[in-house]
Amino acid sequence: MDGRYKHMIDSLGPDLFDKIQNSRVLMVGAGGIGCELLKNLVLAGFGNIEIIDLDTIDLSNLNRQFLFQHKHIKQSKAHVARETALKFNPHVNIKSHHNSIYEDQYNVPWFKSFDLVMGALDNLKARQYVNQKCIQAGVPLIESGTAGHLGQTSLHVKDISRCYSCDPKPVPKAPASCTIRSTPTAPIHCIVWAKSYLFCKLFGEDEDAIKEDAESAQNTEQLETLRKESEATSRLRNALGTEEFGKMVMQQVFHDDIEELLNQKEKLSWRKEPTPLDVNTLVSNAVEAKDKGSTEFEQREWTPEEAAHVFLESTSKLSKRMAEGLKEDPNFTLEFDKDDQDAMDFVTACGNLRAHVYDIEKKSRWDTKEMAGNIIPAIATTNAIIAGLVVITAIRVIDGKYAPIEVEGKKTEQWKNAYLAGPGGITTEPIGPYNPLCVACQTNFLTLRVNLNTYTLGQLADLLQHEPELAEGDRRGLGLQLEAIELGDRRLLDFEDGPVEKTLSELQTKNGDVFIVIADCDEPGHTLTVDLMVEHVDSMEDNFYELVGSRKLASRPVSNPEEEKKEEEEKKEDGQKSLKRSSDDMKTDQVNGQANGSSKKAKQEDGPVHIDLDADDDGPMLIE
Amino acid sequence: MDKKTQKYDRQLRLWGGHGQEALGASKVCLINGSAVGTETLKNLILPAIGSFTVVDDKPVSGSDAGNNFFLTQDSIDQPRAKCVTELLRELNEEVEGNHVEQNPTDIMANNPEFFHQFNLVITTQLPESIVLPLAEICWNANIPLFVVRVNGFFGYFRIALPEHTIVEPHPEQLLDLRLDCPFPALIEYANKFDFESTDTLALSHIPYIAILLRCLQEHKRTHGGAVPSLSELRQLIRQLQSKDLSDPENFDEAHNSAFKARQQTTIPRAIEQILNDPKAEDITNTSSDFWILARAVRDFVANEGNGLLPLAGTVPDMKSDTESFVVLQTIYKTKAKEDVQSVQRRVSQLLTSVGKSADSIPQGYVDAFCKYSAHLRVIRYRSLREEYEKPLGQYIASKLADLDDNIVYYVLHRAVDRFFETHKRYPGYHNHEVETDVGLLKKCVTSLLSEWQVSASTPLDDHLHEIVRAGASELHSVSSLLGGIVSQEAIKVLTRQYVPMDNTVVVNTVRSTSSVYTL
Questions:
Q1: What backbone phi and psi angles, to 5 degrees, belong to B507?
Q2: Of chain A residues 73-92, which have a CB less than 8 A from chain B?
Q3: Which of A340-354, A510-524, B472-486 shows the lowest per-residue confidence on average (mean pLDDT)?
Q4: What biological-process terms (Gene Ontology) are attached (chain B) (predicted)?
Q5: Which of B66, B471, B485 sits opposite A3 (nearest CB)?
Q6: What is the mean pLDDT of residues B102-106?
Q7: Under an 8 A CB cutoff, do B63 and A427 touch?
Q8: Mean pLDDT on B150-159
C-alpha cells in the first residue's frame, strides 16, 4: 500500500494510527512553535484539531511562521494557519478560534472534550492558566518553548507528573521605582522610564502612575513634588495635539523636573549630578540624521541633536494620534507596542535624552527595541526541533504509553526534553512527581452536576455543610464549616448573611464556572478551600445533584504575607527570558510591575518555559 | 527601518547583519526532495539563504504526498524536484529556487563540476554507493557535505568538511580583565581612588576591579612581587573596606571575584595550536582571511603583545558610579583598539607581501578576530573515506558496551546501508518480509562489527526488529525534528558563527534523545 499514511501505519501500526485519527487535540497558540505543530499534526493524521490564538500576523513573524505569507499580515493567526494547513491535508478537521483563551466559553467542559492539549504560548500567565484548566479537566498537557537556539518541552499529567506550576517560577530582582524615577544608573533604567512611566503619563492612563507615586511617597516634600508633577502632567495633556506639545514635554521632563530634583532639600544619592537640558538650544539645533531609516541608523548611537529631532517628530505624531482618538472617545489611550514605529522612536529618543542628562551610556534604537519589547531571538530551526518532539510525545500520549513515574528501582518514562544547541543536542530527563504543596494541581477539586435553573445557592450551602452520613454515594454532603463561596471577584455567599434562595442561574453563574468554597478548619494556621466546578445538566430535577471527585479534602497552611507578596510579583512578571540572569541583562518587563501598575501583557516570541538544568549550580536557567 | 531588517529582526539578534549577509550569499544543494530534505530547506529558506537547488529524478508517490508538507495530492506522479521546488519557493520570495531532474550519479559521471557552485551540499535518503563518491567530490572542492538519513524512528546526520574556521563561536562570557598583568592605564586608574576617604558613598561606588587591583599591587609591593593566595587576597579586601560602609556591595563583589585576580592571563593551548598551525606559517595569496589573521596575531603576541593575545575590551557589569564605570570601560576599549591597530598593521603588511591589497580584509573581521582571539575554533572533520577505511573500532566498541547508547543506531544505519547495497531494497520494505529481513540485517551487523574488530557477541536483536518493522518509512515528525537539527547546523556552518557538531548526530525519537559522535 502506498497511500498518504503509509509511513505512519508502517511505523506505528494500524491500531495506534486509528486512535490518532479519532483523537481530539487542542493547540493553544499559532506562533512559531504553533505553525510547526499544526503542520506535524496534520501530516501525522491527527483527525480533529482545534487551534486558538488571539494574535494577528506581523512582518517579523515571517522568518519562521511559515504558514503565513506577506499578504496575510494583520490577519488572524489561527484562521490563516487553519486555511494553509488544510490545503496540505484536506482530510482532517481543523477548527480555529481567533480569540483569547481566557474567554468564558473556553471553560473546563470544553477543555475536557480534548484528549490532549498542546501549549505553544509566549507568556507565563497564559501558561499557568492553561495548566490550571488542564488539571481541572484532567487532560494531559504538553508544554513547549524556545529561545534562540534553545528549547524545551514537557508533559504534564494530573496526579502523575509535576504540573507546569509545581516548580515555583523564580522572581527576578527589579530596580526600585526611585531608581527609575530619580536616580537611574544604567541604560535600562532610562528605557523603562521612557516606556513605562513617561509614555503612560502622556498617552496612557495617567491616573495609575500618579496614584502609585502617591502611595510610595514618604514625606510631605515628596508629596509636594508629586502634586507639582501632577499639575504639570495635566498641563501637558491639555496641550496634546498642539504644535508646542513636544517642546513643552522636553522642557518639563528634561529640564524643569531635573532642576526640581537638584533643588530638593533631601539629597538624593547620585554620584554625578544630572545636567538639565538646554532645551531651546537643543530644539534649534535638532537635526534629522542623513542615514535616517537605514539599518545603520537603527543600530548606531544617536547624537543628542539627532535624538531631539526624533523626539520632536515622534511626539508630534503620537500627540496627534492621541488628540484625534480623544475626539472620538474621552477615555482613549495609547499603549506601548514595540512594533509601533512612533512609540519605539519616542522611547528610544527619550531614553537617549535621559541618558544624556544623567551621563549614562546610550542604546541604539535596535537595542532599545530588544530591551523595551522583551524581544527574544527566534528561528525556524529550533521551533522545528521542539515541535517535532512535542508531536512525538503526543503520539505516545494518544497511545496511553505513560505510566506512573518515580517508582524506585524501575525505569521511568522520560517526560521532559531540552534541546541545547551545544555538543549534546537533545537531552531528556524524567520530569518528577508532583509537588504536594502545589497550589495549581494539588487543590481540592470537585464537580457538582445540577440543573442551574432550579438548584439554589442555599441548597448548595446545605449540601456543603451536611454530614456525609446523611446520604449515599454521589449525594453525600461534605460536612464543611462553610464560610463563603466565591466566583471570580464576586462573593456569592457569606455565611454570616445567611442562605440565599436564588437559583444558580439567577446568580448569573454558568456551566463550567469554578466556585471557590472557603471553609473553617480545626487545624490552627490552616485553611480549607475547595474548587467546585458546576456542570449544568438539563435533565436534573429541582434539587437533585451529583458531587463527583475525591472527597478527601486537605487543608493547607495559610501562606505568610511574604510569600503572597512573592506570588503577587510573579503574577505581574508575565514570563521569562534570558539565560543566566545577571544585573546587566535586566529586562524591562520585570521592571514593569514596579514602574507601571497597569502593565500590558509582556509579549515574547515563541514562548519561554523554564529549564533547570543544574539547579544547585548557577541556579535555575530560564529560557524563552 | 527597512523591511528586511524588520522581517529578519528575530534572527539578526542571533547572528547579526554580517551573519545574515553570509547566509544570503549561500547556495545550497539538496539531493532528494524527501520529507527530511524539504524540512531542512524550509528552515534555510525562511531565514533567507541566497538560493537552493533540488536534485531529484524521482516521481512523487502517494506516501511522499502524505509525509511531505511541500507536496500535495495533485503532485502525485509528477517530478518530485519540480513539485517541492515550486512550493518551497513560496516560503520566501527573496530566495531563488532551482530544480534539476537528474540522478546524482549521472551528474557525477557527466558533470562533477556541477557541485562546485554550492556552499553546502545536503544529501537525504541516499544510499552509500552514491554518497561516498559524492563525498570525494565535495571534499576535494572544499565544499561542506551533510549526509542525512531517517530510518523509522531514528535519524542519522553526518558533517564532512576538510576545515571549518570560526571567529565568532559566541562564548558564554568574554572575560579578559588582565588583573594579573595590568597595563599602565589600568594601574593609573586604580591608583586614583582614595580608599582613605571618609565619604562612604564614594567608597561604596569604587568598582571592584579597582579594589582588586589595589590589593594585588599592595601585596606585590610588600612581598617582593609575589601574588597573594586567595585567602590572603580576600583578607586584604576586607582590610581595605571601611568599617563605616553601610553598603559594601562592591567589596563583596571584589571578595567573590578574587579568584579572577589570581587567574593567570595566558594563551589557551587550543589557540596556541591555531597560531602555530602550518597554515599560519605559510602565508600565500591563497591563504584565507582566517589564517592571515592567525599569523598577524601570532606575530603580535611575539612582539608588541608581550606574549598576550589582543585584549577583548569588554568589562562586566558591576556596582559603581556611572562616571568611574564609563572611564573603566573606556580604558579597556582604548587598549583593545590599540591592539587591533597593531594587528591591522601586520595584516596589511602580510597582504602586501603576497601581492594583495592592504585593505582586502574587512575591518569588522579584524575587530572580531582580535576580540574573540581567545575563543577561535578550527574544526578539521574526518572524511567519510577515513570513516569507512579507518573505522574507529575501539571507540565504537567502548560505546557499544552500553546497549542503551545511541551508537547502536549508528551501527544499524551502516548495516541498513549495507543491506541496501546487497539486496537493492531497504529492510522491512515489504511487510511480509520482516522476519527474513531481520535475519539478513543481522548478517550485515555481524560483518560490519567483525570488520571493525568489535567483539561480535553484542546482541542487537530487539533493535533489529525495531528498525525492520519501521521499514524505510519516514515519519513526518521525525523528519521535521531532524530537519531542524540539520538546518541549525547548516546555519552555523554558512555563517561561520557558533560551533557546529563534530561529526555524527544520531537522533532517537523513541527515547527523545540525541547523541554526537566523532567517527
A1: -110, 130
A2: 87-88, 90
A3: A510-524
A4: protein neddylation
A5: B66
A6: 96
A7: no
A8: 93
> Do residue B46 and residue A5 have CB atoms under 8 angstroms apart?
no
Give the integer Cα–Cα distance in Å for B185 and B334: 10
Let me know whether B396 and B370 are in one domain. no
Nearest-neighbour CA in chain B from A136: distance (Å) = 28
A425 labelled ligand-binding = no
How far CA A109 is from CA of A101, A455, A604, B151, B287, in Å, comes to 14, 19, 29, 41, 68
All domains of chain A in start order, with CATH? 6-170+377-429 (3.40.50.720), 187-360 (1.10.10.520), 444-553 (3.10.290.20)
In the beta sheet, which residues pair with residue A518?
Answer: A484, A529
Q: Into how many domains does chain B fold?
A: 4
A30 labelled binding-site residue: yes
Mutant choice from A154, A269, A354, A385 vs B, greatest count of B C-beta within 10 A: A385
Query: Which of B230, B262, B294 is the last residue in one of the domains?
Result: B262
The count of other CB atoms within 10 Å of the CB of residue B375 is 20
Interchain contact B404–A (C-beta under 8 A): no
Please tell me the distance from the alpha carbon of residue A448 to that of residue B496, in angstroms, as a whole number.
61
Picking from B434, B476, B501 by the largest number of A CB atoms within 10 A of its own CB, the best residue to mutate is B476
The answer on B274 and B239 residing in a single domain is no
Domain that holds residue B250: 184-262
Q: How do residues A38-77 score in pLDDT, each as one tens digit?
A: 999 999 999 999 999 999 998 889 999 999 999 999 999 9
Q: Is residue B297 within a helix (H) or strand (E), and if so which, with residue range?
A: helix B289-302
The answer on whether A127 is annotated among ligand-binding residues is yes
Give the pLDDT of residue A613. Answer: 28
- Report CA A324 to chain centroid distance, whole Å: 31
The pLDDT tens digits for B415-460 are 999 999 999 988 887 777 788 899 999 999 999 999 999 886 666 7
Indicate if the pLDDT at residue A175 is higher than 70: no
Considering the domain boundaries, does residue B314 fall inside one?
A: yes
> Residue A595 above 60 pLDDT?
no
Which of A20, A38, A43 is most worth mutating to test chain B (most B CB atoms within 10 A of its CB)?
Answer: A43
**B32 and B151 in a common domain:** yes
pLDDT of residue A572 exceeding 70, the answer is: no
Residue A172 has pLDDT above 80, yes or no: no
Judged by CB atoms within 8 Å, which residues 347-376 of A form the interface with B? 358-361, 365, 369-370, 375-376
Q: Do B470 and A60 touch (CB under 8 A)?
A: no
Q: Does B316 touch chain A (CB under 8 A)?
A: yes
B204 within a domain of the structure (yes/no) = yes
Q: Do both B116 and B240 map to the same domain?
A: no
Same domain for B231 and B306? Answer: no
Question: B217 and B131 share a domain?
Answer: no
Cell numbers at residue A615, please? 539547579
- On whether the CB atoms of residues A479 and A553 are closer than 8 A, the answer is no
The answer on pLDDT for B52 being more than 90 is: yes
Mean pLDDT of A222-251: 83
Q: Do B213 and B141 share a domain, yes or no?
A: no
Distance separating alpha carbons of residues A203 and A185, to the nearest angstrom: 26
Q: Is A382 on the interface with B (CB under 8 A)?
A: yes
A289 is in an annotated binding site: no
State whether residue A149 sits within 8 Å of chain B by CB.
Answer: yes
Predicted confidence at residue A470, as pLDDT, reads 65
User: What CATH number has the domain bearing residue B45?
Assistant: 3.40.50.720
Does the annotation place A351 within a ligand binding site?
no
- Of A521, A455, A425, A251, nearest to B482 by C-alpha is A425
Q: Do the domain assignments include residue B504?
A: yes
- The answer to whether residue B247 sits within a structural domain is yes
| B42 neighbors A36 (Cβ within 8 angstroms) | no
Residue A521 annotated to the active site = no
Chain-centre distance for alpha carbon B69: 28
Q: Give this complex's ipTM.
A: 0.92
In percent, the amount of chain B with pLDDT more than 70 equals 98
**Half-sphere CA count of B183, side-chain side, radius 13 A:** 21
For residues B424 and B358, state if they share a domain.
no
Grid cell digits, residue A411:
525505569
